[in-house]
Amino acid sequence: MQTSNRLFDDFARVASGAMGVASGFKGEVEALVQRQFDRILARMDLVNREEFEAVKEMAAKARAEQEALNERLAALEKKAARPARKRAAKPKAAAPKDDTA
């Protein structure tokens, strides 16, 4: 019986050592993949979240300003068109007749 316990103990130590090696290998592979991923992202010249949000806010503000300016322009065009219609609607006064001829 002593031999089988010792055999199991040896197997347990080998398995434990293998798990330690596998864990270390896993850490190395994860670090390698992370470094490679960082290199790829650096070459892509991507923006970070803060920069994206800032540009998104600027675009929303510019869109709102453009809509306000469009409304203002439409109102001014409407106002400018009104007097022209009034002038066209007024009848022209007849020219005085010259009876001297």
Keywords:
mainly alpha, rod-shaped, 2 helices, 101 residues, single chain
- What is the general shape? rod-shaped
Distance between the termini: 151 Å
How many individual helices?
Answer: 2
Give the overall average pLDDT: 83
What class do helices, strands and sheet pairing give? mainly alpha
Number of strand elements: 0
The Rg value, from CA coordinates, equals 43 Å
* Residue share in β-strands: under 5%
Helical residue percent band: over 70%
Main pleated sheet: none
Note the run of SSEs as H and E.
HH
Q: Low-confidence segments, ≥5 residues, pLDDT <50?
A: none
Could you walk me through the main structural features you see in this protein, from its secondary elements to its overall organization?
This protein is an all-alpha fold and 101 residues long. The chain has a domain at 47-88. It contains 2 helices and no strands. It starts with a helix and ends in a 12-residue tail after the last helix. The model has no long low-confidence stretch (mean pLDDT 83).
Give a short overview.
This protein is an all-alpha fold and 101 residues long.
Write the layout of secondary structure elements.
Elements: H1 2-44, H2 49-89
